[in-house]
Every structure is written in C-alpha cells, then in structure tokens.
Amino acid sequence: MAQLFAGTSGFSYTAWKPDFYPKELPSRRFLEYYATRLNSVEVNYTFRQMPSSKTLEGWLASTPVGFAFACKAHMRLTHVMKMKDAGAFTETFLRSLEPLRASRRLGPVLYQFAPSFKCDLARLDEYLPLLPRDVRFAFEFRHESWLSDAVYERLAQFNVALCLAESERLIVPRVFTADFGYFRLRQGDYPEPSRLEIASGVRTLIGSGRDAYVYFKHEDDPRGALWAEELLKRTSA
Length: 237
Description:
The protein is α/β, with parallel strands linked by helices. Helix content is about 35%, strand content about 15%.
C-alpha cells in the first residue's frame, strides 16, 4: 500500500523546545525523539559534505525501521557540475549513502538546482540514464524554463519526481512524473484551511497508489514539525 512520509527539513533545532521537544531533552537525542512522532526527515547535511558511515549508522540506530531519510544531492552535482560529466561523482556520492540504502531507509535523493540554472534538455538527457533505478530521485528546478512538458516527459521516463516546492518566486504545477510525490512546503504559515487541503491532496495521491513525501519548513519555528505530525494523523484517520 502507498504510504505517507512526513517531516521537516532538518531536526536539530533547540528553538523547538518546549512546543515540540521536551524542555530537558539533550540535543544528542533530538533525532531519536523526532522519530517517535514523525516518520521521515529531509537531510540538508549531505548537500555540503559526504556523510561518514559512522554518522549514518548513528542515524539508523536512533530511528526505527520504516523511518526514511530523504537526502539532498551534493552541491557539486547541482551547483558546480550541474549534471555535466557527473557520472563518476554521482557514483561516489550515492556510495556514501550506502548504509541508508542497504537498510532500506533511504528516501528520495533531492536534487535542488540553483535558481540561475536554465533548462538544458541535452544535459538532462545525458544525466538521467546514470541514475540507478532502485533509488528514488526528485528534482527541484528553480528556474521557470524547466517547467515544460518536454522536461516532465523525460522525468517520467526514468521515474524521477518533479519536486513540488512552494515558494513566493516560482509556482510549480502539480505534475506527478513518478510513482511517488515529493512536496516541499516552504510558506511561513499554513492556516487550518490550507492544512486540510494539503491532507486531502495527500490522501488522493496515496489513493492513486503513489507514496507521498511531505516536508514542511523548519528553521526556528516548531510549527512545521507539529503540522507534519498533524498531517500524519489526518491521513491515517
């Protein structure tokens, strides 16, 4: 059955006390506690550095079976190489995630491209075949030139999700190009009607047989974590 994975982009925020994390909880136990209330997290750590096996084993030990880690692709792939001649480094990066992959705890790998990176279909055609089919990938394009049927068709061919990211500068159409949906909810506030609409959309997606990965904005406000927990409850009801 299709499933909802909901959480936030990051978890290590002392400002979430006491509304989400208990007041006396030490920071070294944040992930362990987070995983008692949410079932996934989007990891920004991998955007700037290769995670060590020790770090990933620690994450695995702190979370239960079924908890999913969605990892950002390294910035060298998205901002430096921009997918060009990137086969070797793609293999190196994905190999660094092997502990998560081997334990079946690796969620989608999120490619978040620079806003200045304009559509290049030839480069996309070169790169997509390099991605292993047993890993899920989501592409977040931040230049409007990528939002076209030609791009969607290519993503669908390789089961790569178009990341549905909400931002003030770009409206991404609700197009599903994979057997899962990937949502980044970045608004500063989601009133009750908006959250009910999100829950309805997630239920519809899951009903169509697609898994849903939903990550609320994080930073210094615990509301994102609380909204993700609410979404899990509403969707399972």
